[in-house]
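User: I'm new to structure prediction. If I give you an amino acid sequence, what do you actually give back? Let's try with this one:
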Amino acid sequence: VQLVESGGGLVQPGGSLRLSCAASGFTFSRYTMNWYRQAPGKERELVAAMFPYSGVTNYADSVKGRFTISRDNAKNTGYLQMNNLKPEDTAVYYCNAELSGKVYDYWGQGTQVTVSS
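Assistant: Good question. You get back a string of structure tokens that encode the predicted 3D arrangement of the chain. For your 117 residues, that looks like this:
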């Protein structure tokens, strides 16, 4: 079982990044996909979630209207499109896949996003 994030980096305020999360070793389409982030000295927070089958999405208030979560089950890949980035979005971003109330709970290694001029 593996989740591998990519797409992080350094971007100026107002810029955009798209994170990817490549899944392997499990049936990705059955899992809720989440993106979390953790800034230095802060707790990990849920940024966005996408449920399987229905495709219903939820977002943290701080990113609503700027971030979009999506998934391509045929490619076993999830995405987080981040627009109008702000310095407070700086954090390590983690991909998470969960099933059955986190009975099955998989995490990626994280990717650094830094928003700075």
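You can read the tokens as a compact description of the fold. Here is one thing that stands out. The chain has a mean pLDDT of 96.
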